[in-house]
Amino acid sequence: MKIGLKKKDWILILIILCVAGLTVLIHTYIGGSGANKVVVKVDGVIQGTYSLSEDGKIRINDGTNVLEISNGKADMIEADCPDQLCVNQRAVSRNHENIICLPNKVVVEVESSEESEYDAVTN
Ligand SMILES: [Zn+2]
């Protein structure tokens, strides 16, 4: 009887571990790629919000700027501004990273609903 109980205990522990592991995996998957999004603003007005998990090209401000989303990152690939600083900026993917095009008043900022809570605590 004692051995039987121990086996049951181990099975229970294994089930708990599996569930815990799955929860972490699901959380990592959703938090890592699904939750992040980019907010596109022109002159302080939100033009749209796009998920970083969906690849695509976004024309901003009637095409003065073109943002590309691929592999969970957002990158400004085209702009008609004279300085081209926004195009030269590296791709953004993490919470609060942004790409700014001053001449065209375009701001692209990464937002993560999950991480913002964490930031609120640490800040
Ligand atoms: Zn620019």
Largest sheet: 4 strands, antiparallel
Please state the second-level CATH architecture of the largest domain. Sandwich
Q: What's the number of structural domains?
A: 2
Strand content: 25-35%
* Beta-strand segment tally: 7
What is the overall shape?
Answer: rod-shaped
Walk across the major sheet and give the strand order.
Answer: 2-1-7-6
Key phrases:
3 helices; binds zinc ion; alpha+beta; three-stranded antiparallel beta sheet; mini-chromosome maintenance (MCM) complex, domain 2
Explained architecture:
With 123 residues, the protein is of the alpha+beta class. The protein folds into two domains: 1-34; 36-112, Sandwich (mini-chromosome maintenance (MCM) complex, domain 2), CATH 2.60.320.10. The protein contains three helices and seven strands, in the order αβββββαββα. The protein has helices spanning 2-34, 85-88, 113-122, and strands spanning 36-42, 45-51, 56-60, 65-70, 73-79, 98-101, 106-112. A four-stranded antiparallel β-sheet has the order 2-1-7-6. Strand 1 (36-42) and strand 2 form a beta hairpin. The termini are far apart. The mean pLDDT is 87. It binds zinc ion (ZN). Zinc ion binds next to helix 2.
Brief write-up:
The protein is 38% helix and 35% strand.
